[in-house]
Amino acid sequence: MSNIKKLARKTVQALTPYLSARRIGGNGDVWLNANEAPDCSIYQLDSSKLHRYPEFQPPQILNAYAAYAKLNADQVLTTRGADESIEILIRTFCEPNLDSILICPPTYGMYAISAETCGVAIEEVQLQANFDVDYEAVKKTVLESDGKIKIVFLCAPNNPTGNMLDKNKLADLLTATVGKALIVADEAYIEFCPELSQTDLIIDHENLVITRTLSKAFALASIRCGFTLAQTSVIEMMSKVIAPYPVPAPVAQIAEQALSADGLEVMRDRVVVLNNNRHVLANALTKIDCVVDIFPTTGNFLLVRFKDSAKVFKAFADDGIIMRDFANKPRLENCVRITIGNSDEMNRTLNTLNSL
Hints:
Elements: H1 3-7, H2 10-14, H3 21-24, E1 30-31, H4 59-69, E2 76-79, H5 81-93, E3 100-103, H6 110-117, E4 121-124, H7 135-143, E5 149-155, H8 167-177, E6 182-186, E7 208-213, E8 226-229, H9 232-241, H10 249-258, H11 261-285, E9 291-294, E10 301-306, H12 309-318, E11 321-322, E12 324-325, E13 335-339, H13 343-354
Helix pairs in contact: 5-6, 5-9, 7-8, 11-13
C-alpha cells in the first residue's frame, strides 16, 4: 500500500467510487447513457464581476425557483447539483459511526456513496416485486432502528426503474416518522411527470425534503445546479453546513435565464418532445423479439430487459451508440437503460435492435 493510501481514511481506502457515465466512458456519437437532454439553449453571461465572490444563495435564483415550485424562497436551498444536497443532508443530520440512512434498491447509487464517505451506515429495504416502495417495511425499519436511521432516500421517478411514489402512503410514512427521520424524495426527473410531484406535502410535513436539479429537463447538466425544497427549519440546518460560496456567479446567471418565463417555456416544450419520443420508443420496443420487459415510463429514460443484454449492448457499441448497462446489478439482470434522445437517436437505437 502506498504512503498516501495509508493516510486516507480506511472507509475511503475500501470505497468503490460511483461510476458516472463520464467515468465509464465509451466510444460513439450517440450518447444515451447519462439521461442528458439531447439539445442545449444559448445563454448570455456578464463577466464584469467575476473578481467578486458570489452570493451565498443568489436571491434571483431562490425567488425564481420558489415561484416555479410554488413555495416560499426560504423553503429553497440551491446547491452544486442535487448530489451536493444529498451529501449535505447526510452531513447535517447523521452522526458519523452512529447513524444510518435507508435506501430502497435498486435505486440511484450516490445515496450510498455519500453515506459511506461520511462514515454513515446504510440500511436497505428492497423495492417490491414491481419495484414500488414497500412503505410498511420502510416504516417498520425506521421505527425499530432506535433513532439510528435519520434519513430515508426515495427516488421518484426512480432511477433506473422509473417507478413513482404513492402520495397517500408517503404522507402516512411522513406522519409515522415525524421527529425520527427525514424522508427525502429525489425528484430529479419530475419535470417529465410534474403532476406526480410531492411538493404540496411540504406545508404539512416538516420531515419531508425534496431534491431537484436543472440537469435533466432544463438541459443544464454541465452547470451543476440543484435545489433542496423543505420547510424553513430544514433549510436553516443545511445552510450551516453547505460551503460558503456554493453557486458560482456564471451558474447563477444561467439558472436565472433558464427559470425565466421564456426559459420555462423552452423546458416544457422539450419535455413534450422527449415524452413523445419515449412513448414512440416504448411502443416500438414491444414489437422487437429480443425485448423481454419495458419498465415504467416516467422519466427521460427507459429501462429495458433483453433476452441477452450483453449481445444487445455490444451491438449498440458497435454502432456508436453508448448506453448504460445495469445487467450486473441485483434484480436487473439483462437490463440496459436507454436515455431518451432526439428522433434521429431513437431511430438509430431501433435500427440496431431490429438488426439483431
